[in-house]
Design brief:
The complex is a heterodimer of chains A (about 170) and B (about 375). Chain A has about 170 residues and is mainly alpha-helical. Helices cover about 60% and strands about 10% of the residues of chain A. Chain A is built from 8 helices and 4 strands, in the order H-H-H-H-E-H-H-H-E-E-E-H. Chain A has a two-stranded parallel ribbon with strand order 1-4. The longest helix of chain A is centred in the N-terminal third of the chain and has 34 residues. Chain B is mainly alpha-helical. Chain B has one domain. The longest helix of chain B has about 30 residues. Chain B is globular, with a radius of gyration of 21 Å. In chain B, about 60% of the residues are buried. The chains are: A mainly alpha (about 170), B mainly alpha (about 375).
Chain lengths: ~170, ~375
């Protein structure tokens, strides 16, 4: 038997439809699980905090005295450490930020240096060392050890600007 | 004098016919491709030499040929006939594969699923050409571009076709750099080939350890017949990632896989005895296998394009070609083709995701076909 009749006789259409569906379902379910695995693990790490929040009993309504006491006090803005950079360092700082943006928030130093060298940035190692020592770039801990990010709590400022300002 | 004439009559020179010479030429071609062209040398050299071993004309009944009970080759071939070698190879593959690119971007796994369409379209084509269902299933799996899976399934469904199917599967795997690029160019535009992929996120060690357990449970609950292959694949990966069983992982990815590859290659090659191999059926299997491979490549690429239509995060459609599971050759071909258009575009790392999911997908497909057709 040949042709379409042979396919029908062997349940070919059914087997094909079922087979493709099973392969797709299997890999799609696995992909979905893997896509959420990181979130699930983060939630697992924070399970104690989440359970505490869940168990927290509702507090009685606050008295007028308590409300008055709880009024926010005027807060002074937290001081952010500022690192003064030379003109060249400012330029390299900008370059590095542009290069790391392509890697995402978390980046690897070898890759950054490789890209900096490719683009002809002078003395990338020296500049990187300066940024690390002054805390502009910080290493991540735990399981992400070996990866880095820009430290949001340290600001870079041109030294020339600072002089003009003063 | 009679004794000498008897001896001369029993030599290979006297017993050989043109079919033996054809197969010896095929064996030499395999060895040449492996050594000179570096096409899958770890497979083509043992298979090529196995073809030479299997096609020395011998006197039937001496217990020398691979199909003669009691012969050494017959015992070694037991691992192929019973589907023992493929899972052991999967153990080694699992122990040497880093799944982190797949874990970082799981949606690329769908490309590995899409490429398996080649298996089922070839299954239909083989049925339409008059092959019985069990043989059609074994031929279709060639499109999975996974030698061990093809051998495993044909050993279960059509043991007589193990030789031609294995040779076809490994030949096309070796010829990935020749077969895939024209299809990739045909189905993609220059703009699409220039698409750059964003950097994958960093994957934690915990995710890497949990993946083989979750992956195994999910896949094998869905397609239990894939258990021998996927069980060993994920087990090998767990050995690698858990770090506390490094000695076992080291053995699985070096000594064990090498020994099994030698045994598998030589015996599969030796199973291609001219009288068994040179038939019209074998020619049909080779033609269907080539078609299967091409459809699988096209399926992956077209699905990648479809994903681009519905997704904001564009993916380079060349990655779809890596959905056929010839690891890592099809991923390397994606890198080469992408690099030709844009030398700064590094696709290899991204292509490994559909490539590895293709291995899982073809093992699931094999399990499905086995359970339907046995």
């Amino acid at each position: 038997m040949y042709g379409l009749s042979a396919i029908s006789a062997a349940n070919g259409w059914l087997i094909t439809a079922a087979g493709i569906s099973i392969v797709f379902t299997g890999l799609a379910v696995l992909a979905t699980v893997l896509a959420n695995l990181e979130k699930a693990l983060t939630a697992w790490d924070k399970r104690r905090e989440l359970m505490k929040k869940g168990r927290a009993t509702p507090r009685p309504a606050p008295t007028p005295e308590e409300v008055a006491a709880a009024k926010p006090k005027e807060e002074t803005a937290p001081t952010v450490p500022v690192v003064d950079l030379s003109q060249e360092q400012m330029e390299v700082h900008g370059y590095f930020q542009w290069l790391t943006k392509r890697q995402g928030e978390i980046f690897s130093l070898p890759r950054l240096l490789e890209q900096a060298e490719k683009r002809g940035i002078r003395n990338p190692y020296t500049h990187l060392d300066f940024f690390l020592r002054h805390g502009l770039i910080q290493e991540l801990g735990g399981e992400q050890r070996g990866f880095y990010r820009w430290n949001p709590q340290v600001k870079a400022k041109s030294a020339e600007e600072a002089e003009v300002g003063s | 004098m009679e004794l000498i004439l008897d001896f001369l009559g029993n030599t290979g020179f006297a017993l050989a016919d043109y079919r033996h010479l054809i197969m010896i030429a095929v064996g030499c071609t395999f060895i040449y491709l492996g050594i000179a062209k570096h096409y899958e040398p770890l497979l083509l050299v043992p298979i090529g030499f196995g073809i030479l071993m299997g096609n020395i004309p011998v006197f039937k009944g001496l217990g020398l040929g691979i199909y003669e009970k009691g012969s050494v080759l017959h015992y070694l071939y037991f691992g192929v006939r019973q589907g023992i070698y493929p899972p052991l190879i999967f153990l080694g593959i699992g122990a040497m594969t880093d799944f982190s690119t797949m874990l970082a971007r799981p949606k690329l796994m769908l490309l590995g699923a899409a490429a398996q369409v080649g298996i089922f379209t070839t299954f239909l084509a083989a049925l339409a050409l008059g092959f019985p269902a069990n043989e059609a299933g074994s031929i279709g799996i060639i499109g999975g571009a996974d030698g061990p899976t093809a051998i495993f399934l044909s050993a279960k469904l059509a043991p007589d076709l193990v030789g031609p199917i294995a040779i076809a599967a490994y030949s096309y795997m070796a010829l990935v750099p020749v077969i895939q690029p024209p299809i990739m160019y045909l189905l993609t535009t220059k703009e699409e080939r220039l698409i750059r992929m964003s950097e994958p996120r960093a994957v934690s060690k915990r995710e890497k350890i949990i993946f083989p357990i979750v992956g195994f449970l999910l896949c094998c609950f869905l397609a239990p017949a894939a258990l021998p292959l996927l069980g060993m694949l994920f087990f090998g990966n767990l050995l690698k990632e858990c770090l506390v069983a490094d000695r076992l992982a080291q053995t699985a990815r070096t000594g064990l896989i090498d020994i099994v590859t030698i045994l598998l290659g030589v015996t599969v090659g030796a199973s291609t005895q001219a009288d068994v191999f040179l038939t019209a059926k074998s020619v049909g299997i080779f033609c269907l296998g080539a078609a299967s491979f091409m459809v699988a490549t096209a399926g992956g690429i077209l699905f990648a394009k479809l994903m681009n239509l519905v997704s904001k995060d564009k993916i380079n459609p060349l990655l779809g070609a890596a959905g056929v599971s010839a690891v890592p050759d099809s991923a390397r071909v994606v890198q080469l083709v992408g690099n030709r258009e844009d030398p700064g575009n590094y696709l290899l790392m991204h292509a490994m995701a559909p490539n590895i999911s293709g291995v899982i997908g073809s093992a699931i497909a094999a399990g499905v076909l086995w359970s339907f057709l046995l």
